[in-house]
Every structure is written in C-alpha cells, then in structure tokens.
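Q: What does the assembled structure look like for these inputs?
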Amino acid sequence: MFLEIVQGFATLFSGANFLYLIGGLLMGVFFGAVPGLTATLAIALLLPFTFTMATVPALVTIMGIYAGGIYGGCLTAITVKIPGAPAAAMTMLEGYPMMRRGRGARAIGHATLASAIGGVIGALALMCVAPYMVQVALAFKSPERFSLILLAIVLAATVTRGSLLKGVISALVGMALATVGMDPMVPYARFTWGNPHLGRGIGLLPAVTGLFAIAELLRQMDSRGVTITLRERIGFRDVIPSWKEIREIGWWLYLKSAIIGIFVGMLPGGGASMASFMAYGEAKRSSRHPERYGKGTPEGIAAAESANNAMCGGALIPLLSLGIPGDAVTAVVFGVLLIQGLIPGPQLIAEHSHLVAPMFAALVTAQVLILPVGLFLTPLYLRVATINRAILFSFIAVVSLVGVYVAEFSVFQMGLALALGLLGYVMNRKGYPLVPVLMGLILGPYLELYFRRSVSLGAGAAVFFTRPISVFLLLLAALFAYVLGIKRSRS
Amino acid sequence: MSWGTAMGRSHILQGLAILAGMGLYVYQLMQLPPPFETGEPGPSLYPWLIAVLLCACGLLLIRKGLRGAADENGPAPGGEFAGMARSLLAVAVTAGYLWLFSVAGFWLSSVLYASAIAVLFDSAKRRTVRAAMACLLIGIAITAVVYLLFTLLLGVRLPALRLP
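A:
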C-alpha cells in the first residue's frame, strides 16, 4: 500500500487536483464558520456537481471540505461565542473567555495548530489501519456482513445524543424509506403507490438534499438567526502560538485527544461533537490545572480541536474498509462513491487503490493546509461569516433543488427532496436525529440483501448464530445497545 | 392519565403519527406476497420486520405519553405548531416553485423563488418596498449565479419557458 500512497501524493500534486483540494478546503472552512452551515451541507450541495467530475477531483474536493468544515467551526465559536459547527461547542467554552481577555487571536492559533496535528494523526491512522481491516473484511460472507451492518445501525441509533427510542425510530424510518422501489433480490416493485418514479427507489441525492439542505433551510426559518458582530480585531501576527504555550500543553495531550477522536470517528454515528466532548473531558480529568477549565485555557482548545479533526480520518476507516459510514459526512461520501460507480467496502481499496490513495493524500494535505488557512485567512473568514442570511439561504435553496433536478432531469425528484426535507424538519424539531435516518436509508438495502441471502442459503435465521464472527458482531451490537443506550437512558 | 399535559400529549401525538404512517406502510405491504410464499424469504419479510418494530416504538412513545414522561423536545410555549408559520410558508413557496419550474422554466421560477425565500428571511426585520426590491435583486443575482454554475460547470441545459 505504501507505493500506492506515494503515487496518491503524486496524483494529488499533478494537474488541477491540488487546486480542487484548496477550493474544497476554503469552501469547507466557510461552511464550518457560518452558524447553520455544516460540512455535510457543503458536500450535499456539491453532490450534483460530482456527476460530471472525474473520480479523483471529486474525492479530493470532498476531503478538503471535510477537513475545512470540521475546523471552521472554531472561528466563530472563539470570536463571537457561536459555534459555526456543533463540534466547536467545547472549543467555545475555552476560546471565548480567552477572546474576552484580549487573547482571541491566540486561541484561534491554538485551535488551528491542534486541528492540524490531530487531523494529520487521524489521516495517518486511516492510511495504516484501513488496508489491514480490508484483509479481515474480505473474508466476510453474507451472515457476517449482515451482522456488521446491523452493528453499524445499532451504533448509529444509540450513539447519537438524546433519547434512545428516538434514535432507534430514526434508524427504522431510514430503513423503511429504503424499502421503497425494486426489491434487491427479485424484480418486484414495493411501496410505489403505482407511481413509476418511485420504482427506482429513493435516491441518495434527494434524500441528502432533503434531510440536510431543505430541512436546515426550514429550521433556519424558525429561528431568528444570529448576528455576528466582532468586537476585537484579529490580526494574523497575534495568531501564532508561542513555543512555551505549546510545551505547556504537551504533545501527549494532542496525541491522546487525536486517538480519542479516531476511535469515536470509527463508531458509526459518533461524529465530531462526541469526539471533542470526550477529549475535552479527558483533558480536564488528567490536567494539572483543572480549575483553569471553563475560564479560557489553551489546553481545552487543543484537546477538543485535535480530537474533532482526528475524527475525520477515523470516520473514513469503516467506510473505506467495511463500507460503513462513520458519520453524516462519510454517509454523503458513500453517495459520492456510488455516483462515481464505486461500491464502498473492502473491494474498494483492494481493486481501486489508485483512486483511494489520492483521497488519503488529500486528507493529510488538507489537514496540513489548515495551518496557513487558519493563521492567515482568519480575519477574512470572520468578515465573510457575517454574510446576510437571506442571500445565503436563498442561494442554498435554489442550488440544492436545481442540483437535484439536473441529476435526473426530474421535477419529481425535487418534490421528493422537499417531502424528505419536511420530514427531516419535523423530526429535527421533535428531537429525532437525522444521521440514523441517512444510515438506515444507505445501509438498509444491504442489510436486507445479506439477511435474505443468509437465510436462503443457510439453515434459516440460525445461520447468524453458528458462525463465530457473526456471533461476535451480534454480541457487540447487543453490548453497545446496552451500554450506550439502555444504561444511559436509565442513568 | 396525562393526556391533558402538554408533555404527555407531545409523546402521544408522535406515537400516533408513527402508527398512522405505519398504517399506510402496512396497507402497501398487504399488496405484496406473504413472506415465505415460495419457501424462501420474499420481498415482504424485511418490511414486515421494520413495520413491527416501528409500531412497537410508536406504542412505547404513547405509553411514555400516558405516563406523563417529559419530552425534552416537547411543544413550544405557544403550542405544538408555534413558530412554524414561516417554515410552513417556505414549504408552500417551495411547492409552488416546483410547479412553476416545470411550467415556466428555470429563470422566472428561480428568480421568484429566491426572492420569496429572501423575503421570508428578511420579513422578521423590515417590511418596506425598498427591502422587497432588494430581495428581488437578490433573487435575480442568485439565479444568474446558479445558471452560470450549472451551465458552465456541468454543461447542463436548464428548462426554458414553455410557450403554449
């Protein structure tokens, strides 16, 4: 794999690929910095454009958006106490008090440095772990694949914050939506209500656009929005953290937080928010000065930011090696790979390493590029983040719906996106997480396929309990459901 | 019985909504052949499992509501649908856009839609003719940018006005 990765770097730095990466990174930081916009939304908007893009530029752009989107949230979290992305909430706890003491620029510097360090560690972990996991995953047959997907859906439903029951309902709604259209094994149309448009099922593009763009537009209509006013001028010279401060934080904290981020990223449904929350908690627990937390300590910023950017690499590990998305962004990346004619899973790395290796290279490079972007472009981004909401969301509304139209030249698909947007909005309003819906929608057909294949070929449902790996995965699903869901609900 | 409390009612309404949705789902499911008609798991087996699980979840929500369990995402102070007026208006505007898009093509429908969304976002702040004109300009500019993006970047022909 080492040679392929070297070739991946060569591909990245040849032709226009590097420009795509920079474009994606800048776009990602913008979407991360503006409250209400997320990396998921940015990739969802990019989805229709990937139909005509070659595979490598499409994947490279997405890696840029992913890294930039997770990082960008810290900018407004530190300067105006409004996290641009939910993952930046812990950064806000320490960054804003520093801002009020006139050290906002320095807080941004620490966040940038930690994001880059954590992000690079996460991307390196992806390069090292994913190819080995592929070797294991290639040995999986239908019963093991069923159990693995079930584990992923159980995790997505239980790991998300809020009510366990609502997480389970969200996943089941996604799985029910996935049953619309042709049966995966026999040519039989289901749940089409006689409408030929539904015969092909609910496509990923209207689903992602509806659940993440239209639903967000409707949610923003509800809220009064936030007015960003910057009281302190941020000059880029003040941003660079001192060596003394970095040594006080300690390299171990960056590394430990990145490892936490990688593991949380690997859990389907974990996401950047949980990564930063857990790393921040651990940093505070093990700190020599826990009393400084909440009052503006660079340690807290470093832990949260290192973890949430390391999560990017972690979340891509199950996607590329097992075909299971780790969070909302990787769920959309799953769709991009399908659009490009690639099926995420062990075969992807084994057979298309020339396409995946530039993706690895792009993720590492994007995390390194966060340093110059964060240190030199922060003042510019803070100005851009004050953009009028009317302009921003009118643009998002038109571009997302027209994007859905051009994929199939079908107004029906636009209507489907609107219907799913309304569903997503109502579910969001009532506290139902949307990531499990998307996971259920994406993984549902595979779950059904492997379930029916296993039952047909084996001795009924008992086949899942006679194969050791399948039993192990099912036990793991039960354990996670108990520990993360039921036990949490009781406490 | 806590049907009277807003918190309990919220759970009950959510449970009933799930059961109603499952009613439609099961109605369509009944049109499919039975799960093991051919001796092997057929197209209806997996949807039946989902339907049973979702119905169970709906009933659990209703039971929670009847016990008066608090829903952290319960109704807003003004009621279940408070604060949703602008969002629902946006849904209606979007539905109108889809109709106009198929009839009047990309340009006219998108200018009106983008302007309408801008008006809805702006309406909380100011309601003047000047503000409305600004929203119209926003609509024209956004439509032009989207047109350029799709025609230049994707090389796609967007639908034009259909004359009778």
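Strands of chain A lie at 181-182, 189-190.
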